[in-house]
Write a structure and sequence with these properties.
homodimer, about 325 residues, alpha/beta, 434 Repressor (Amino-terminal Domain), Rossmann fold, 3 domains, 6-stranded parallel beta sheet, 6-stranded mixed beta sheet, 12 strands, DNA-binding
Chain lengths: ~325, ~325
Amino acid sequence: MKATIYDVAKEAGVSIATVSLVINGKGKISKERREEIRGIMMRMGYKPSMIASALTGKKTYALGLLVPDISNPFFAEIARAVEDEGQRHGYSVFICSTDNKDEKVGHYAALLQQKNVDGVIIGTGIRELSVLDPLLHGGVPIAFLAREFRSVEVPSVVVDDYAGGAAAAEHLIALGHRRLAVLAEQDSISSSRERVRGFKQALEAVGITLDPALVLSSAIKESKASALALMRGEHPPTGIFCCNDLLAIGALQAAKEMGIRIPHDCSIIGFDDTVLASVTDPPLTTIAQPIEQMGQIAVQLLVRKIGRPGERPERIVLRPELSIRQSSMAPQTEIS
Amino acid sequence: MKATIYDVAKEAGVSIATVSLVINGKGKISKERREEIRGIMMRMGYKPSMIASALTGKKTYALGLLVPDISNPFFAEIARAVEDEGQRHGYSVFICSTDNKDEKVGHYAALLQQKNVDGVIIGTGIRELSVLDPLLHGGVPIAFLAREFRSVEVPSVVVDDYAGGAAAAEHLIALGHRRLAVLAEQDSISSSRERVRGFKQALEAVGITLDPALVLSSAIKESKASALALMRGEHPPTGIFCCNDLLAIGALQAAKEMGIRIPHDCSIIGFDDTVLASVTDPPLTTIAQPIEQMGQIAVQLLVRKIGRPGERPERIVLRPELSIRQSSMAPQTEIS
DNA sequence: CTGAAAGCGCTTACAG
DNA sequence: CTGAAAGCGCTTACAG
């Protein structure tokens, strides 16, 4: 039913080798023949099968994108940037949501290598690096996006998470806050660890120590409950740094439930600057990541790696930026 | 470098045919041989190449998902549901953002058929159905999701958009509104047209006619500007029905810019009930779609179609539901 | 119960 | 400038 290279060869009265050459613009085919064969392909609606050509040494022009959850706006925006930049280089992308579970990462790693993808972008947290073995041993190029593992030499784009955490702290300090809390992601997520570290260091730089009891790791579904725990303590914080916008939203909801006014009673800072940040009540002060740029660079690095596997992998660090909205202000109430 | 079926055959001292049989659990292989070969595959880390097996008549186990924009939270949530349900049936999914442009739809249609995907879920607006020809003629099964074209017999899941639009109108009417406006999507989007039609009919049912000047189609990027146009008219509406949550957010922003208080001065209703609706200021009254269910059903229908191409395609209609939050209330101000 | 052979739709040297 | 042939990694009848 679908035309194959044999059909167009027969129609053109040439061998399939010749047709293959014109498809790939190789060899020296007379101009007329070339034009004629092109015309026949058009007329027959012939498109070479990518799986057949992939089997004969060419690429599959497919990429995998591993993220914790495509429905999380941050990763959805990343995915769009990756998709667009991928298209620009001729690649399609498979979405792979891992829920930050090694088990799912491993599953997708095996699957993607079985599917012979040309490369995979890894933007998900991983505990045990060995779950990537199917990719690493299978010779599938990878690039890290917004996550990284210094132990392995792989191209990566990250935002300076440490600096971002520090910027959040400095903003809060400048506003006059002293008693601060942190809502972090799981510990397996390197970016989250760095943000907390930067936040903590910046506090210590001005002589404030972060109360360990006020640093909570939380899954996104439990962000509200975690924030409630933070706010219900004996000495509630006057400001909370949340390691992503979604966690910040949980904090916002917790505050609303407890009748705590944001930012009057407590300041909240997020991280990411997704669409969400501009629509919350109140709009969220957050540390903005250059999302589109990160996605673009990730595919550029990966594509380069695919092209020249031997080259030394690059590591690109982008600067996050404080975006001030209405969820932060100077502390108003004196909390005993 | 990667092990092939030949490597394991040699290692096991059998023919590749035998190995193939144990891979596929076919034929009658003695239990010991089967176990032994399984062990060897494990040890060598052998996984059959999906592209090779796809070339020999089997499926590629890849699906395409066409949506307007994966970074739009509604479609991101759809994508997650499609990905998960796809995995459950053994399929991976390619993301394809079309920006509702026929040109991109056509591009992806051709690309997906070249990649030999087993099926495509279409959740994007299309003006000229012929852009799907590469799929239709290529014999690639498709299913419509949240969009549809009655002219072609294809399995589809939709929400009763007409009823949803009517529900929005009824809510507003019950609240006491009489002068209403609509912020719609582009006309090529069937779901949007239906929502507007339902809204309008419900108004007419109680003797209110919708002023055509107060019905605007708007791209998402221009939603704020369009809402401003609506609100700046001589007789501004006391309520605006927006055909999706993102448009409603544009309206919220326009109101804020003009100093119009929501819901006191104007009620706003969205459609979709994505995460966004619960975090806006104020939280959005909206018509909720069963997003996860829609994604699941779409792949179930598609998978069924792939399995039994001859069967009569099903059409599943789900009910949307009014979700009341704080962006709607009885009209307060008397606007001349 | 298992192997030899053809074939899927291409690409790539190698001849001529 | 163009064709015959081998090969990519599998699957599937067909023999035996």
